Records
---
Amino acid sequence: MAGLMEDAKYMIQSLLHPFEAFYQIKFVRRNNYVLPTIIMLLCGVTGIFSYQYTGFILNDNPLFMMNSITIFITTLFPYLLFMISNWSVTSIFDGNGSLGDIYIVISYALVPKLIFDILGVILSSFVIIEEAPLLYGFMAIGTVWFIFLLFCGLCVIHEYTVTTNVVTLIVTFIAAIVIVFLAMLFFTLMGKVLGFFYALFSELSKRW
Amino acid sequence: MRVKWSLVWICILGLMLAPVSASAATTFESNYTYDFWGSLRTNRSLPAFELVRTIDNSLLEQVKFQSIDDVHVGGGRIFLVDATDSRVTILDENLQFVASIKLLRDATGRIIVNPETNQQLMLNKPEGVYYSEVLNELYIADTGAERIIVLDGQTYTYLRTIERPDNMVGVTQFKPSKLVVNKEGKISVVVQGSYEGIIELNRDGTFSRYFGVNKPRVNLIDYFWKSIASSEQKEKMGKTFAPSFNNISIDPEGLIYATTYDSSAQDWVFRFNAKGENVLMENGYFPIIGDIHRYRSSEESKFIDIAVTDYGVYAVLDRTRGQIFVYNFQGDLLNIFGSTGNLKGSLKDPSAIAWLGDNLIVTDRYFGVAHLYQPTEFGHAALAAEKAYYQGRWEEAGAHYEEALHLNTNYDIAYIGVGRNYLMQDRYEEAMYYLKLGNARGYYSMAYAEFRNLFIQRHFIWFVLGLAGIAGALIYSEYRYNRRQDLPARSGAN
């Protein structure tokens, strides 16, 4: 519990002083994944929350066919995909960050986005259509902040210059697409193989 | 014991009573509508129209329908065009036979003979008909003979022929297929396959102009190639022509409605202003494209006719699935019904649609029959609501919408209607309740803005107190901060 509070201190520091805080996290403090995991789970829950509780005027979602597990997964999926593809790219590009470091950076960077998203959902119940752009502008602050923190954090943990970081980020996106493609290929093929064995089994079981 | 037996007898007698609404059983299967999400799960609807009668050869005496290609209702009569037999059959409102026109007669009752060719003047594959109540004239688009024939509206004697005007420009062949005539006698003619638009003729038969803009859909790839091609290359490329109109209708205000099923068209239903621009309102959940669940282009709705009531509700007939889509003037989809097939009431080859009061006549070219649909109790309520709303009787419209809601709780348009009515009465909370159910976010936002204003006005003191509290806290903290800053400075000075 005390460690968690210590982590929270670093997290709050990282919001306004990302370079220093992420440096401290990487080199001074040993990695602890409880707080980042809590933030990640909260992020998924926020996805569900905003799907369901965004005010009626701005909420076009068919709530009667809502599936919270799907929303949870689809909210977290891009971040985890980014984590994996960034890790695989930076291992080649001489990045010093470990998978755990990247995980911590992403989750701490998500904090302002989380806060602004939740605020946006709450405020969305009190706006009318004409005020919607203002609300979206307000929520965009969180997203911009998130991107800024992510960028700084990755710079620090990989010990990159800005240019290298930009290049690795571009490659990261390409790698993410490749990963998705391979995953789809894998699952399709696995499905075919399983289907074959299933057909074999049902054929055999009908004969004997 | 006697009581028991009498109860049994009452039950048996009750079973012998004939079911009251037998005809509704023929239409309930195919009635549906689309909700806000276009969801297939929630779109079943109560029937708004039910089949009451079929107009077929049993109504006629000697000559029979070979096909029915167009139907028009005007002056209390129904005009049915048979292109195969080159005949126009006229029935009255009670579906009694009135007249049948093939050979044209003059005022004295003699058959007209062309003195040059010595041939009788008779219809040649007509495809359209229009009766002008103001002018008391019957216009027949005599497609096969490339002319328009004008008859007297009561006696059906021959008045005049309008042939291709001498001053007509463009490359469109003068093969009138469908036509309407406005109150001033201007004739608007649709020629199938013409990319120049609707032909507008003056009352005397001279050419006025081409009318109606039908924008083609722009293909992104074509656009790219055309943007880099040289002008010589462009000449060799296939030209993109404006899609052609296939049918036309006119409302009592004189605005012309048209349809197209050309796959390259952007819009499929048109309502033209005097300049020829499309001013159709599409404020419903979906644009006016008929069926929205389209996986292949062959499943797209293809509109072949449109019928407009005098209160803005219009019905479009779809060739793909023999369906009739009923929209109100704002573009809300009221109901979808009808199907293709060989069953009674189904259409094999749908050709035309017309309103007979609040009833709908739908014709089938293949079987040569027309089906008469009448509104159900729910349909009556829905149409009455639209009528009252269109004519500006808001209160009455609200009452009718509520009646429709009692009959069909899945009727989203009525939720909007009721909510809109409350909104106009400044009853915002009720309005918000109904508009939320109707998924009308625009109206909901209006109601909510007013509701929020009232809320702030009513609780203004709390907002003031809250703001004052925050301001006070800020000032106090500043004050304390400055005092704490000041103290050591002062002690340092001392």
Note: Chain A has one domain: 2-207.
---
Amino acid sequence: MTALLEVNNISKSYQVSSRLFGATTESILSDVSFELESGKILAVVGESGSGKSTLARQVVKLEQPDSGEMFLDGKPYVSIPDLHQRVRMIFQNPAASLNPRKRVYQLLEGPLKNYRNLSRSERDDLIFQSLEKVGLSNEQAQRYPHMLSGGQGQRIAMARAIISGPQVIVADEAVSALDVSVQAQILNLIMDLRDDMGMSWLFITHDISVVNVIADTVLVLYAGRMMEMGPVKQVLESPLHPYTRKLLQSVPGVDSPGNEVVAVDVKSASDDTLPEGPACAYLARCPLADKYCAECVPPMMNLDKHLVACLKAVKSP
Amino acid sequence: MSNESSVMSRQSSVRKNPPFLLKVKNLSVDFRSHGKSISAVESVNYDACAGETVAVVGESGSGKSVTALAIMGLIRKPGILRSGMVKFDGKDLLALSSRQRRKYMGRNLSMIFQEPATSLNPSFSIGQQITEVLKLHENLNHAQRHNRALDLINEVGISDPVKCLKLWPHQLSGGMNQRVMIAMAISCNPSLLIADEPTTALDVTVQAQILDLLRSLQQKNNMGMIFITHDLSVVSNIAHRVVVMYAGQVVENCPTTELFQQPQHPYTEALLKSLPTKNSYKNKRLYSIKGSPPKAGERLSGCRFYSRCNYAKNNCREESPKLINDLQSNYRAVRCFYPLTNATNHMLDLFDDSLA
Amino acid sequence: MSKADTSTEIYDLTPWQETWVKFRTNRIAALGLLVLLILIISAIFAPLLVTHDPHEQFTDILLAPPFWADGSQSGFFLGTDDLGRDMFSRLIYGARYSLFLGFAIVSLALFFGVAIGAIAGMKRGLLETVILRLMDIMLAIPAILLAIVIVALLGASLMNAAMAVSIVLLPHFVRITRAAVITEMNKDYVLSAKLDGSRGWKLLFQTLLPNISAPLIVQSTLSFSNAILDIAALGFLGLGAQPPTPEWGTLLSSSREFIEVAPWTVTLPGLAILITVLASNLLGDGLRDALDPRIDPL
């Protein structure tokens, strides 16, 4: 079975400052590859600066990666004219991603008008159907985004994403800006939509505690490089990469109140610099690092569908 | 500091006729707009002892930050302090003139905010900003100030204090800036620290470090702390006592361990249940609270949680419940006509399972 | 629950209604709008309002003072000028020129400014640099001087003066549009509009323009007063409207030799200019506050 979405070794760098002579570029993503199967949810976890939003922009084709290829249904991105209908995106904050000057109806109408040649009544039908799927009533169609609550706004963003019948939806921190009580509603909705419509999700988040609720596979990014990828249960229960372990230990859990989170390697809080030249990106913060880690970029090792880029992965407990 | 000892110390801090460091009583704040008054916070009561961390938890718009600003005397137009009393160390803070308050507060009470980057002045170096605070409140000469600044930076766990003092805020990461903010806040050894979402803007790994730092500073200086957050998992991590706010009111006030074991208010219970946890079973639907919190100004009669509550009865719609102290069970209070007990909780679990 | 109803109503307003609610509470700005409206109405209905033909000369009543001074003539309640023409009628007709020219000049500058600025902001690159440097050069020359040069090249007439003034105002619109377009282009709602298939002019008109209209509207009202002032100044210098056109600047200049014997012939057109400019500036300030989303009504 071939994967629905296949991302092969994409890299992206941005020009940071242009001086009079020459410009410096900063690598944001390097060599990221993954496969997303139909009807599955892949969570991409990373902290700020991990390149997870940049990854989202490449996957929805808002930008072109510097190198690497992407395939949907086995076909390369360049040969898919209706890619924007088949891969859709949801942003973090509905207040920012919904045009404040348009009514909900106009927002949902946008993709239909631009991509498809439909009559007014066909458009109406699709709009009301997708509103229903995200649990909103038709009355909401005439409202402006600022009249909606955060949860309703994110539902509208989801209605807009599903309206073109996509195969993949990229959700960039889609529940991070929401209150806890609303966050659960939206996570449930994502799972419902996946089950009802069979689409796949690329769920980008900084919050690893959300991951085990909805994802099938998890990909951990650090400084634009893949650290670890594998089935959620395996990665969360027996992480192989020291960074993943660190992330998991840092999450305060309510399961056992009274258990303080311990900041494991406070060697120095200012040590989050990236190494020069080829070396492991996590070198400076890693408690296990030795001289071999500083000599090359650790290759991705495959241990029974559980990928990890760490030289110390096997030896550590 | 080992993990075990801090758990011990938190559990042993049961209040026995405590001398309150901070006492907030019937605090109400309104916001005026277009000639209308909108209540943001309504008769909030809570208190904190020395060496105790009280977490104030609530969703956006619950009034948790407004309460903190009111304690600090920072309510500005269009906000109006309608009523209330803030007693700190036996002194009524709201009765002080703004000048007296500034002088008194700087030494005894300080506050840190969510966005360290915007709380620090971008056009002064870290060193200048810390020594400026010391200049205002401590009677030290230039060299003493510099040494004290070095000590402070050291105390908040920054590895190279000398270099750090020479840096500008934009050269430091968010976590480092928050450490600097904490250093400035504790520079006069305040007896109470108000932290308004101090870790929300930070990455989890950095958040863990900052929580660690705050906890150890607090224990070392026997400082009281009001920790405002929307994140219940952070609460379980740092607080001795939790004040849950909803729509401008305190709905529950309870020691942390008891709150997580046996929430009495339906809202607290729902919040806890809707949290994704490490043990959440994959692909099982999360428990979710129906509807969304009332918007500012949308104040309803009766219990404010009525429309979202699973246990609501008829009278909840008409009558407003009061915050009632339960003196028997270790000083906890709840604003509900039908506080939850173990039995009701169990019922809901069964109901939940039958759904799934 | 009437209390709850009234306090939630602000949520149910469309963006423009909300702007109007905020604007309405600003008394001074509303006054500016009112004055402008009165001026516009009187300009439109000038033939019905005036007491005399503005060009008719009453040679026996030269330099008659207005009604509050000694020796005023009945029927000429704002007095007459040196050729015996009724001041009130000339001022009312003058409003037609000033207001109409103001609108025309601002519309022209707005249209081309938005188009050029949007191209610069959306395309970026070399084109943007060229446009920006050109605008910088135009801004570096004092406005009235630039206008004089343009009029000198085109020849002195009212239409040419109007063209010159709108060219002078253009760079402001270009810069504002470009800056606003660049900020908005990186926002999530524009990105999602792009993903929804909006590109080019469609993106500009349907998505960007409604969201950058606030600074443009404010700039338009402020430019409106500038346009009136510049047109009056050019008229005063003899480069704009030519006598006997009752344009306010021309009125000022043609009567300035009588400032000692008949001060009203100079004061009244000056006052008319002042009131119009002040009113549109007040309106602009009020709009700026009302359109600013940071000033939340709640």
Note: Residues 261-277+286-355 of chain B form one domain.
---
Amino acid sequence: MTQPVFWALVGMALVVIGLYGLIVHAHLLRKILALNVISSGVFLVFIALARRAPRDGAAISPGPDPVPQAMVLTGIVVAVAATGLAVALIVRLRAMTGRTTLGDEADN
Amino acid sequence: MDALSSIGWALDGVLASILLWLAWRTLSSPALFRAVVLFIAFGLVLALVWARLYAVDVALAEVAIGAGVTGALLLSALARLEPPMGRGRRGDKDDQEF
Amino acid sequence: MTPPGYRQGDGRNAGGQAETAAGARARGQIPSWARASIALLLLALFGGLALAVLSLSSPAPGLSEAVAARIGESGVSHPVTAVLLNFRAYDTLLELVVLVVAMIGAWSVGTARGCGGDTPGPLLRHLPRLLAPLMVLAAGYLLWAGAHSPGGAFQAGSLLGGVGILLCLSGRPLPDGLLGWPLRLAAMLGVIVFAALGAGVAALPGGSPLGWPPDAAKALILSIELAAMLSIGFILAALFAGGRP
């Protein structure tokens, strides 16, 4: 196993952990945290796999591939923007209904 | 060469286990405040991982955004969603009037 | 305005019951067998993904050589910046649009009401005086360094966003003169400059949209990065403030 494959596996583990948290937890802020963990895992898979060797011989590419890095960079900024929007929506939901979870228990 | 690579593997292993542990604790700790703080720590460790993978641009962005801005955003959301007893309810009252 | 009794009752109701409802949902409505089967399914998913990664071909396809071949005419010498602002400029332009849309979304669901805390402590009142100028300086350095080494508009912009958050936390209100169109202009600046220059080079003979001519590329990229940095910083701070001012 090479270093890129190792970190790609770690990234997938992060995605799976995040998915579990996303499904199991009801609190919306926790769901945001889970989504952020998932996106970190996806970025990790992307960057790690980009370090595989571009040609035979070397196990690991000498310089990092700039294209995935640029895409992950935009991805990180989009993720924080989405988080900000989601937080605004949750604060609004809390102000209007007093709840921080979704679901059909509106009449309690 | 061999010693260097085994040190590198040890570093990778330690970083990966810290990262996975922080992610798990972020999503499983019962207190939300602790979860957010753990998530900030997660972002910082992830920045170290980017540096390990020679993605320095991503590491810089992760430190500034993943740990800084997202952390501040989530902490302020937490302060608005679950104010401590007896104070800080003004915001919600203002919103009720809209 | 509202009697204090109502406020306390509301607090108990909203805070207490929402918490217990969430707890009941998390613990009661998802029984342990369902959790176990979710975990098993996700483990199977992980196994499948791991198999997929382990079976990837060894000489991996990559774009570093393609980038290295054309970096001379991109105007900058740092490959990531070249990809962001030259080779894949459409990505970055649309990403700035996404930021603006997110900010419009946040502004349309609520108004900003200070920045979380009620009154800033002595540390928050005085620390920004020291930190903010240094962070602005660091952002400027990162922006300039992005042309030849790691750094660039995104990192600098997020540092500026941090400056905005600090100023917001320190309780200094924005001057009234800035509240109207200057704020909206600051948010749109990156998109406006990027799109205008991109359309402008298309009007040149033999030009294409967002295809910078090699001899002017550095100046174009730096001015776009400057505008994008300001917009990113402002939008991140606005998202932190949480709504329309």
Note: The longest helix of chain C spans residues 4-29.
